[in-house]
Design brief:
245 residues; 11 helices; seven-stranded mixed beta sheet; alpha/beta
Length: 245
């Protein structure tokens, strides 16, 4: 399975993605964005999980998403947001038009050299490139057991500390911040979160069903989650902020 096939898999699980994926803490968004942002582009927007956090914090928010099923779901949830077909390497905005370009849970699908050049084209001088990831807390036994069940193709170390970027953002002038928080969701939404992972989406149906059954058993067997209608999922949101020269 190639990285491109993983990246293009999400449309098949757009509804599960919308139901199961967490949002992002307000503090992370406030820290990332310029105070006077006029136009912000959220690239790889999916169903708009990060996009909705941007609404109201800029005069205009544009969502850029390559998958038509994900884009359709976004427009249903956020009908007032302009949603455009595009990728991190091909952003359908004019030169120097954006005050910030964000990638939430998306930069690891982008060619970092071509993507950095394209973001630099779209940003005005002094504009912000923001790379954002939610990473699950694995210190709780049930969460560690579930993570052991899942196979993740992206590097966790890179999203936490040093994402790979290209010129002109590779000069070391980057700020990093982290925001721990807890997302309470019901069990069905938690299973949708698992089912919306690319490496789960691409499994044959019988293997996907078996994997989800194993996750259910973990929740049923652990003292913290057994018998509970909700699952307390700890996250840390990692934010990396680059300023265009």
């Amino acid at each position: 399975m190639t990285l491109e096939q993983y990246a293009n898999s999400f449309g098949a699980a757009a509804d599960a993605y919308e139901r199961g994926r967490p949002g992002y803490p307000d503090a992370a968004v406030d820290w990332l964005l310029p105070a006077d942002a006029r136009l912000v582009a959220d690239v790889g927007a999916g169903t708009g999980k990060f996009t909705r956090s941007l609404v109201g914090r800029a005069a205009e928010v544009v969502a850029v998403e390559p998958d038509p099923a994900m884009r359709d779901r976004l427009t249903t949830v956020l009908p007032d947001v302009r949603a455009l077909a595009g990728t991190g390497e091909s952003i359908p905005l004019a030169d120097g038009s954006a005050d910030a370009v964000t990638f939430a849970q998306a930069w690891h699908w982008v060619d970092p050299v071509r993507g950095s050049q394209e973001v630099a084209r779209v940003l005005r001088p002094g504009g912000v490139l923001g790379l954002v990831w939610n990473v699950r807390d694995e210190t709780r036994p049930w969460s560690a057991r579930i993570s052991a069940i899942l196979s993740q193709p992206e590097s966790r170390a890179s999203v936490q500390s040093a994402p790979v970027v290209g010129a002109p953002f590779d000069d070391g002038a980057v700020e990093h911040e982290r925001f721990p928080w807890v997302h309470e969701q019901d069990r069905s939404a938690f299973l949708d979160m698992v089912a919306s992972r690319s490496y789960v989406i691409v499994l044959p149906p019988d293997e996907r069903t078996a994997l989800l059954d194993r996750v259910r058993r973990v929740l049923d067997d652990d003292p913290e989650t057994a018998g509970s209608a909700t699952v307390p999922v700890g996250y840390t949101t990692y934010v990396h902020r680059y300023v265009r020269p």
